[in-house]
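Final paragraph of the annual report: two paired records, presented back to back.
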Amino acid sequence: MAYSGSAEAPSFDSSSLIDLRSDTVTRPTSAMRAAMAAAEVGDDIYGEDPTINRLEARAAEIFGREAAVFVPSGTMGNQIALRLHTRPNQEIICESRAHILDWEMAMAATFSGCLIRAVASPAGYLTWEQIAPVVHAKGSTFSAATGLIELENTANLAGGIVIPLPVMEEVLHEAHKRNLPVHLDGARIFNAATTLGGDIFENVRTLTRSFDTVMFCLSKGLCAPVGSMLVGSKDAIDEARVYRKALGGAMRQAGVLAAAGLIALEEMTLRLHEDHANAKLLAESLAKLPEVQIDPATVETNIVIFNLNNRSAAEVTSGLKARGVLAGATGPKSVRLVTHHDVDRNACLRAAEILGEVLEDAAVAARS
């Protein structure tokens, strides 16, 4: 079952809400709001918005690429990349819980005319050993040719885990030997880079250096209100602008958004370790609850997914919501919590305490 967040407005004072459904709920910081108000703008379609131009140039520089393009969403960035690398009637290989499969409205079929070949992996990410058996060469009159391999780092529904660098490098090496492009959905790539320690920008370049294209989000944990980036070669990004227009993603005086994106890129990337520490703390607190199954050692970034022994995820998330904590179900008995800038350490501890109360109340009700 895919992740299910609740869009229904809470019935209590939202100022006391602990929203752990996703890091997509983050609000722009005061510095971002000030930068947005003061942003220098122009017409981006003519390439005349100086703030967007600065953001795109800086993103390309950080990732060691020739060019970058600002897009309204990560979904659009991914779908543009799929279109860049494929032609109709090909297959795209990805892990069975990938965002491009479960959360992007079957657009690979609609926009690129491609079928997704999903491969389940217990680890949540694909190795070349798992990919190789489903690679189809061009020229067959029976099977659709493989056009693209896609990886996701961090792997969201696998609990925000980081793909080991040697695993990615083997996939890239073997794919490129076969002239197969590889796209990275790096929506949370800065979370992955944070786990390596040291210079986060150098880590990002290391983790992404051989991918043909990379998409990453400025929203989510980086707190920008809107926007993602697609980076790659100059030719690829020139073509990407055509597909952005085709998808309705062309923007005019969008420097007001890019101004927040610059702060997200330069400043908010440097604080992600706080979210990771809070996620680890949350997992350690949850592990003390008898009804909860979780190994805190598996929590690498800002996503915490736990299983329940007897209660249903729907029952638990409903009980949490009634007490001011928002969470999402990832399966009949699994729940996802995501830490972010707008939920501090004390809020995480309080959320764990409230979960304990919800589970105890459920146990009492079951015995009566």
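The closing record of the year follows.
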Amino acid sequence: MDDDDSIRDALEDLFLSVGLQARSYATAIAFLDQADPLASGCLLSDVRLPQLGGLELQERLASHGFLLPVVFMSGFADIPMAVRGLKAGARDFLLKPLRDQDVLDAVNAAIELDRHSRLVAIEGGKARLRFASLTTREKQVASLILSGRKNRQVADDIGLSEITVKIHRSNAMRKLGAHNVQDLVRMDRLLCFAISDTVVTAVAPDA
């Protein structure tokens, strides 16, 4: 994102040359007003923007529904500014003049992060739906199995026979689509954290 037409054009040409779609905006306000919050990819933004700076834009993204990774660029070696952006979750901080390969490396890494995050969110949503289909007892048994308890120990813990525990465990595994305890652990992690290649370039001046 840069209000310098030549920089916007150069970035768009660079991305298109490697098969990445790009949308550019002259200001952060225009980005917030016009960009699709559900779009995948990443946000490449200058730090020094008119009206609303890049760091301030970063702070507003979540409240506007954007979950895109952010890559900042700046013509000033402002270390405190870079640190602030990175601490707030920015994926990278590039200094102008930009090197094409540095830009592509940073953007591709951010896109991969976004793709992974979206896949985790999708799988986490599926895991939540499956977990919600369990009965209270099945959830209890699955939880104890995840904690490392054996069937006999689970039976003693909740006052059931071992055969009854095995039935609840089998039903829970079937509903969750799990073949073993390792599958249960993976789903549990998804619950805890519970696509196209597009670069959204937020462009504004570095003056």
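DSSP finds nine helices and five strands in the chain. This concludes the annual technical report; the extension proposal builds directly on these records.
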